Amino acid sequence: MAIENSATQTSVPYGRFENTADLSRNYQRNGNAEAAAERRNPTDEINGDRHAKGYRSVASTVAMGAGEPEATSAEQEELFAQYRDDRSELPVAQEDQEMDRNKRNVENRALDRGGSFGRRLLLVNVMVNGLMFAVTGFITYHCFNKAMVLFSWHPTFMTTGYLILMSQAVLTMSGENYFTHRFTHRTRVFVHWLLQAVAGILITIAAVCIFLNKIRLGKPHFKTLHGIFGLVTVCVTLVTILGGVTTKYAFQLRSVVRPIYSKLMHGIVGSLAYLLGMVTISLGVYSVWFQEDNDANIRLMLVIAIALIALYVIVTPMLNTVQRIKAAVRTTI
Question: 0.90 cut: is pTM over it?
Answer without folding.
Answer: no
